[in-house]
Amino acid sequence: MQQYQQLPLFPLTSHIMPGGRMKLKVFEPRYTRLVKECLQNDSEFVVAMFNNEHATTSSDYLLPYATTVKIIDFEPRDDGLLGITVEGKSRVRIDEHWSESDKLRFGKIEYLENWPELSLDNAADKLKTRLQEAFETYPELSELLPDLGYEKLDWVCSRWLEILPLDVYTKQELIRCESCLKAKEYLLDLIR
């Protein structure tokens, strides 16, 4: 059963997966509007990867596979900007998108099933160990995550896809899959 919704879009070069958290800086009026409306309505918006090979007016500017997020915290920053913390909720596909008069983008969103929970297996233990090392070396990567789900393969793969600087097409190919198994194989090949 396809469930569609119209949601505001926040284009970024980075990506967040369900269960992940990210801090964002808001300074443009269109995104101030997005934050205000989402807080007033207790609603979600979509963090979408953009393809900088295309013009911002192109239908190919935003890549289709994305994640809805919910604002879980906000704070005025010393630099005068608004800081928000978001948490990834659902995998989605952006079927079409457009800009309103203030240039805030909206999209027709199809909800997808989140990756099923899978236990970490022996083959993927190296992914867990290397992720723990990355989080220990760069604590800012893990400071937002209250639950470090190292025993769940889907959680480990999701965190890797958030932090690795993969090209957008590879990342899209992996996050569009119905489970984390293809991501697991790709990541294992990468760290071998």
From TrEMBL:
What Pfam family does this protein match (any one)? LON_substr_bdg
* SMART domains hit by this protein: LON
Enumerate the transmembrane spans. none
In terms of Gene3D superfamilies, this protein maps to: LON domain-like (2.30.130.40)
Lon N-terminal domain boundaries:
4-192
Q: Which PANTHER family has this protein been placed in?
A: ATP-DEPENDENT PROTEASE LA (LON) DOMAIN PROTEIN
Protein known as: LON peptidase substrate-binding domain-containing protein
Q: Which organism is it from?
A: Idiomarina rhizosphaerae
